[in-house]
Amino acid sequence: MGFMKKQVFRHGFSLLLAFCLVFGSLVSPAIALTQEQKLVSEVWRIVNRSYLDATFNDQNWADVRQKTLKNPLPNDQAAYTAIQKMLKSLDDPFTRFLDPEQYRSLRVNTSGELTGVGLQIALNPQTGILEVITPIEGSPAEKAGLKPRDRILKIEGLSTENLSLDEAAAQMRGPIGSVVSLLIGREGEADKEIILVRDRIELNPVIANLRLSPQGKPIGYLRLTQFNANAAMELATAINTLEKKGAAAYILDLRNNPGGLLQAGIEVARQWLDSGTIVYTVNRQGIQGNFAASGQALTQDPLVILVNQGTASASEILAGALQDNTRAQLVGETTFGKGLIQSLFELSDGSGLAVTIAKYETPNHRDINKLGIKPDIVITQSPISREQIGTDADSQYKAAIELLSKDLVVAGS
Fold this sequence. Notes:
Shape: globular
Oligomer: single chain
């Protein structure tokens, strides 16, 4: 019996050895990758591991890598171009490569300061056209009269039709005091060229003051312009200050707020909620994560949120969370509809990669991507100037004041 076992083992081992020898003869020696090829492979691996769409836009992602690496990559710029082409095949404007300068610029933007013309831009998810989400308050773009939903057709005479978001942003960047021309398309008007002088952009994300209702009740007005690294802390300070001044209700103005850091949006939501889900995230495996409130809100006073077509991304997370938790009523227009989450990766050569890793849903499992959030009270209005925001010329603001006035009368009766 022992002899038979030894014979079987020997034959089995011989077959395994023969297989290894034959298989080994079919494998060519490993070829060392160049630095440029390693960068391409690094990007490919991150997307392969993290990207939301498991079909990679209905293509064989491994084949994309092989085809990309077959092309000569003599320098960094060739590698960057190859990576951009590889990512473009995903047909997702939010998954994008950033060269070292662009990556540094993005990090600075979310930290609370930047230089340029002061435009928040996006590719319209339906048309693919480059559009203004909103000009930053006090920026050259705002002073020149640019408005949300304006189409940016050309930059310095170059058509934006085939430009990525970062390529368009790079075209608009430049030294302080330098000039850039934009060809702007606006609904119902002829295309027009606008000349902008680049400048340093001050990013103070919170504007706060105390207003009075027609009945003389104190109402805290808070305008949040973006979700940068300072937003949650500055808003908390503003709420606490207004509480001490006797605010009995609040208006949170998220109009033309293009979003920013997901975590900042979550932290702001926690300032208004004692408990409850803030947002669900769904990855390509369909696994749902969630962020929730689990502490004491800074105030329990009635809240109305102002939204419009320029309210996007983290702003929509906040608005949806407070609407679904019945913590706030929304007044204004249906929001922009960006319901995808990107993660930012730093690459080995100092460049960066933004990858769509998940989509988000509101607490009631509403998927808002390309749909937006519909307010409780819909009020459309023509664009108004910065000076008119929060005045009698602002019909959305007036509706919020009226709504809160009724709540305060009921609460006081």
